[in-house]
Design a protein that fits this description.
With 465 residues, the chain is mainly alpha-helical. The protein has helices spanning 2-5, 10-44, 46-85, 90-121, 123-128, 134-146, 150-166, 171-193, 203-228, 244-276, 280-296, 298-316, 320-354, 362-395, 399-424, 429-436, 439-453. It has one domain (2-453). The protein has 17 helices and no strands. α7 (150-166) packs across α9 (203-228) and α8 runs antiparallel to α9. The longest helix is centred in the first third of the chain and has 40 residues, at 46-85. The mean pLDDT is 85.
């Protein structure tokens, strides 16, 4: 068993690093922007900071929808790209690849419209679902209305970057994200606090700065895909191409990923709702720990996407046994990265909490310490099952089974236990958070069983071309 999990294979690990490291760096940049936004807003006021974090929970739902669309499409894109490289039905694979991108973009724009309408016309209803604190609701409404157009540009940048990574173009999205980081930070500094003659906009300034950064990011990523890139070969005219020959295969493989991630998004928001009704101090503490957790898992997310891409390309080339061997190696990497992440959280929790300034209450600081202690335990299991469910198993085409397995533990186990711990038994913050995240342990056990079964490798066709 140990030989399967940890085997000397420099070529494999180099490939994972080449694909995963730029993705991890881009994730780090994205998380860093969110963390710096939070730190800047926390120095403005705790209510502003808490309201923005709650409003961003709605934006996160859309972001997870987009990740579901992008990662679902990535299963097909990486498989078709593998077929093209192996010269297996090369012409059909090329057409199917472009059709996949086209369908993904159309669905993304549909979802962006729905979320933008919600942010513009129903912001109070959205904020009421997260908190009953009137001051947080009013601030959150401002943030959501300024974020209306952000959904379109955020969606374009997210799905375009995933497609580019699926064919080995992982550096360009990283460079673009670095540029967006500079734009966002500059905008925050000017618009939140009113520097260089600009009005002091507070939470509205944070939302506006984010929008400007997303416009920059979306334009750069999509321009590269639609004008410069030659691997996918997608051009603006292909947005209007005929896609009916691939629709059934697209829906069979990609839609379960979208549904799975969508249910997971609502589940994560249900967790946020539970936390939101535990008090503003708990909300502030959770905001601190959320960013810290994201920072600790950037490499895990890179390996997740590398796992899906490498598995898809291996199977696209007809190398089933190689994909199985790589699956076990990815499982071993999940355990190793989980332990490293746990150590990172344990040793950085104090400086991270202190960086949020003296406007963060003593109660929020105390809760933040408890939550980070819980996360340092849970992260080991989260890292392992994420690399399996979002990486290897998904790349193998096992998307329908994952649609159920990836969410049943959250809704049937973690949420009920977390709600009982918080509202009925009034347990300490450590145990509330532990039970809210207990699904991560159960999913890890299931992933090992699924990997051993070998039933996760599915055949994917090029449709009816």
């Amino acid at each position: 068993m140990t030989a399967k999990l940890f085997r000397k294979d420099p070529k494999f690990y180099k490939k994972v690093f080449v694909l995963g490291f730029p993705i991890a760096l881009q994730t780090l940049v994205t998380v860093g922007v969110g963390m710096l936004d939070n730190i800047m807003l926390s120095h403005y006021s705790e209510d502003t900071f808490s309201a923005a974090s709650l409003a961003n929970a709605y934006v996160l739902i859309f972001q997870i929808f987009c990740m579901g669309l992008g990662m679902g499409a990535s299963v097909l894109v990486s498989r078709y790209w593998g077929m093209k490289k192996a010269h297996d039905n090369e012409e059909k694979a090329d057409i199917s690849l472009k059709q996949t991108v086209c369908l993904m973009l159309r669905l993304m724009l549909l979802f962006a419209t729905i979320f933008a309408v919600g942010a513009l016309f129903l912001p109070k209803l959205i904020m009421n679902s997260y908190t009953d604190k009137e001051e947080l609701i009013e601030l959150g409404i401002v943030y959501l209305r300024y974020s209306t157009l952000t959904f379109f540009f955020l969606g374009i940048s997210l799905v375009t970057a995933i497609v580019l990574r699926s064919v080995g173009q992982s550096r360009l999205p990283l460079y673009v994200s670095l540029g967006a980081l500079v734009v966002n930070l500059t905008g925050n500094y000017i618009l939140i606090f009113g520097h260089f003659g600009a009005p002091k906009m507070g939470i509205a300034g944070a939302a506006l700065a984010t929008l400007i950064a997303r416009v920059f990011e979306a334009f750069a990523d999509f321009f590269y895909l639609a004008v410069i890139d030659t691997k996918v070969g997608f051009r603006i005219r292909h947005f209007f191409m005929q896609t009916r020959t691939l629709i059934s295969e697209y829906f069979r493989v990609c839609i379960p990923v979208l549904i799975s991630d969508a249910i997971l998004a609502f589940g994560s928001n249900a967790v946020t709702m539970v936390i939101g009704h535990l008090g503003s101090a708990f909300v502030a503490a959770n905001s601190i720990t959320t960013v810290t957790q994201q920072l600790s898992t950037v490499m895990i997310q890179g390996v997740c996407q590398a796992g899906a891409i490498i598995t898809g390309q291996s199977l696209g080339k007809g190398r089933k046994e190689q994909a199985e061997e790589q699956g076990w190696l990815f499982l071993g990497m999940g355990f190793a990265l989980g332990f490293l992440s746990a150590l990172f959280i344990f040793f950085t929790k104090t400086p991270v909490i202190l960086s949020y300034g003296d406007k963060t209450s003593a109660e929020a600081v105390s809760i933040a310490y408890q939550l980070l202690n819980a996360i340092s335990l849970i992260i080991i299991f989260q890292a392992t099952n994420s690399i399996m469910t979002k990486g290897v198993l998904r790349g193998g085409g096992d998307t329908t089974v994952l649609m159920f397995a990836d969410n049943i533990f959250l809704w049937a186990m973690a949420l009920p236990l977390g709600a009982l711990a918080g509202f009925i038994f009034h347990l300490p913050a450590f145990w509330i958070y532990f039970f809210l995240k207990s699904d991560q342990i159960a999913k890890t056990i299931w992933c090992v069983w699924r990997l051993r079964s070998r039933k996760w490798i599915k055949k994917i066709s090029t449709g009816k071309n």
